[in-house]
Design goal:
Blueprint (H helix, E strand, L loop, with lengths): L3 E3 L5 H8 L9 E4 L1 H7 L1 H10 L3 E8 L3 H12 L5 E5 L4 H18 L5 E5 L7 H8 L5 H14 L4 E3 L5 H7 L5 E4 L18 H7 L3 E4 L1 H4 L4 H14 L1
Parallel strand pairs: 1-2, 1-8, 2-3, 3-4, 4-5, 5-6, 6-7, 7-8
Helix pairs in contact: 1-3, 2-3, 4-5, 7-8, 9-11
């Protein structure tokens, strides 16, 4: 799986202009998050799909009562995206409801259902924040691996987690369970608001299934060159 480029843009025009910079023969996997989806709605998915063949990770982090999440997931399932997310903290019933909704919506639209990923703890979270604000006193890696096991049992296809937690997640999940890792920064790059970060090569060696990279590519002076450098490090490590 190639690096997933986070299209963290404010407008659909910015996002589509960015995608058009990439040659047609370049395999492309992009992430549409809340900012862009709230700006463009479902139409941004169709616009991106119309530009060229690509895979889309629709990262909306659903978190609500199971019925509401199932209905929302059914709408996502109709869009033909490759992956989407829920918060593992919503619990097993909510995760299972999301899976059911994705499969129902995809079947109605005649498309393949998206892979369902559960968010464990955000890469901006720290041990101190979890303890002081959420009253989670177990070590952060243990909290992440526990949520991964819950998500797998509820039918999720994988999780989103820091690459630092990959070995612990691998120890409690099946071999084909996806671990998608944000918080990826090339060597010497600014970390921004991320706390638990690794390089593309480190993520590959640890055993991540996929990496998500945003600003080091989207804000680079030469985005295509930056993407290819990161892809090379990721694929050859």
């Amino acid at each position: 799986m190639p690096p997933i480029i986070a299209l963290d843009f404010a407008t659909t025009d910015q996002a589509t202009a960015f995608v058009r910079q990439f040659p047609a023969g370049e395999r492309l996997f992009v992430k549409v998050g809340m900012e862009l989806f709230y700006a463009g709605g479902p139409g941004i998915i169709r616009e991106l799909q119309a530009i060229r063949p690509l895979d889309i990770f629709l990262d909306l982090k659903l978190h609500d009562i199971p019925h509401t999440v199932e209905q929302a997931a059914a709408q996502i399932g109709r869009l033909g995206v490759a992956m989407t997310t829920v918060h593992a903290a919503g619990g097993s019933r909510m995760i299972a409801a999301a899976k059911a909704g994705l499969e129902r919506g995809a079947a109605e639209a005649g498309v393949r259902p998206p892979k369902l990923l559960a968010i464990t703890h955000l890469t901006s979270s720290s041990q101190a924040m979890l303890a002081s604000e959420l009253s989670i006193t177990v070590p952060l890696p243990e909290a992440v691996s526990h949520l991964a096991a819950v998500a797998q049992a509820a039918g999720a296809d994988g999780v989103v987690a820091s690459a630092q937690e990959v070995p612990l997640i691998r120890a409690v999940t099946r071999p084909d369970f996806l671990i998608v890792t944000p918080g990826i920064r090339p060597q010497n790059a600014a970390v921004g608001d991320q706390v638990r970060v690794v390089t593309p090569g480190q993520a590959a060696r640890i055993g991540a299934s996929a990496i998500v990279v945003g600003r080091p590519i989207t804000q680079a002076e030469k985005p295509l060159a930056a993407y290819r450098q990161i892809n090379q490090e990721w694929s050859q490590s």
